[in-house]
Amino acid sequence: MTRNYYYLVAGLPDLFLDQDKxxxxxxxxxxxxxxxxxxxxxxxVELLHLPFDNENFLNSLxxxxxxxxxxxxxxxELFDELDENISQLPAYMQEFYKEYTGKGHDEEEEQSSSFDxxxxxxxxxxxxxxxxxxxKHGNKFIVEWYSFLxxxxxxxxxxxxxxxxxxxxxxxxxxxxxxxxxTRSQAPDFGLKREVEYIDKLxxxxxxxxxxxxxxxxxxxxxxxxxxxxxxxxxxxNRIMSFLIKAGIINRWSKxxxxxxxxxxxxxxxxxxxxxQVSSK
Length: 281
Description:
Distance between the termini: 24 Å
Helix content: 55-70%
Largest sheet: none
């Protein structure tokens, strides 16, 4: 069942602009969405935010001592005591935890474990589990977004490996023809022009000499993909998730470069107003 949220979508730009401090608040936006959408739809929003939980999970498991990211579903206290709380986390995290630590396996499971498969580092194995989970549980938007992210990250990894002259085998997530091409092809576009319509644009972006400009253009590229995936979803949860992706990009740049963050905020308001006008005709 598709649910429409007319008033929420129309008021989205105001939800993350603190009128007193003129400051960005992604957490406030996320909480407002939670309070105003159906629980079944918010489950998809939580799937969208799993990468933040993944970050916190791996930070705790690998003892990286990085700051906790508050944008995920699960609280910091849960990750501080993984042994006690692992059963409260998604199935793919539980599986990886058991494989990585050896805790919670019986003897038969240990014998059949594939965790020691050569050429795959632990983080790649974790991402394989995550993407399988997300693609199985997500709606159409989530499936298309995570399919894009997986392929996008694989292409960037392959380009980086090629530039540094290192072997990419075992560093890519998933399998299939695209991974095979990224691993073996010597063509500039890995022979993927027909399969990946955006690859030429991505190759052009990665050639930028300035690291900041490259990162900005990559984020704008992801922004455009999120927009395209919800092009015909004017007021439903897919439109809201597309908005959240773009709001997350603004949040990132508001910290890296406030001027860029302000530009992207204005772009988001303009885009949303334009889509609202189109949908009202």
